Amino acid sequence: MIVLRWLRAFAEFWIDFVVGDDWTVAAAVLVGLLGSWGLVEAGLPAWWLLPVAALGSTAVSLRRAARR
Amino acid sequence: MNVPVLVTTFFAAAIEVIEMVAIVVAVGSTRSWRAALAGAGGGLVVLVALVAALGTALRTVPLAPIRLVVGALLLVFGLQWLRKGVLRIAAGGWAIGQGEEHVDEGDVPPDRFDWTGFVLSFKGVSLEGLEVAIIVVAVGGAAGALGSAVVGAAAAVVVLAAVGALTYRWIARIPRRALQLFVGALLSAFGTFWAGQGIGVGWPGDEVSLLGLVALYAGAGVGLLSLVRGWRRSASLESR
């Protein structure tokens, strides 16, 4: 029982750490990473994609939060 | 004592140690010094165990997957803080929450150990420390002067840790909300850089691009502040 509670707290901690207030930002980072990996594999410049995905998704998330 | 090896290792390690100290000071200033220092200590213990176990075989440790995982986690967490910082400053202004006040009761548990701060600090110290250890083994091993390389890296750690301890007093005077926004930008920049390195992204100027990323995220945070204020105004006008 104590182990189960500890495991649940551990899982909740990591979900909160990664997802936080808006899961779409974490999802956009994942998409940005996959896209960057694709560009690297294709031999194209990839350094620009991750910051664009991160800041673009943060801006969209902030717009949603501000208009609530 | 091999002076060229000592100097080379000092400067090569200094770049990594600056990143390590920046994360620990940022986490300590905005969340909890106890958690940040415990995380740093934990990271160093793991690192010492790893160095003791592997020795010169450290050169074979695959850094790319470690950078990818640590970087991705730092990036998603950094963006959360950037977002929260922007929302709070937009709502209540910059100069709120100085000294020992918490940014928000929801961020740092007042009566419990701050595991989030611990993990952030632990990851930063263990990853950067691992890179310092690899520099020592590579430079010292190649020149047959491992002792000089260890002294050079240790000097970099001592000097920059002292700089971190001195800047803490200055950082403590910055309003907490502003600090939260800029620490979010800092963590996002480190996370972007390391995660990119982990998947093989070639950064223009290599480590120098970290400064550009910090400026980009901090500038974007300040820019988003004006946008959020505008969105709030238009939303309140529409609701009337």
TrEMBL record, chain A:
Q: Which UniProt keywords apply?
A: Membrane, Transmembrane, Transmembrane helix
Membrane-crossing residue ranges in chain numbering: 21-40, 46-66
The protein's superkingdom reads Bacteria
| Annotated protein name in UniProt | Uncharacterized protein
TrEMBL record, chain B:
- Regions that span the bilayer: 6-28, 35-58, 64-82, 129-147, 153-171, 178-196, 208-228
* Keyword Membrane among record annotations: yes
Domain of life (superkingdom): Bacteria
Keywords on record: Membrane, Transmembrane, Transmembrane helix
State whether keyword Phosphoprotein applies: no
What's this protein's name?
A: Putative membrane protein
Organism expressing this protein natively: Petropleomorpha daqingensis
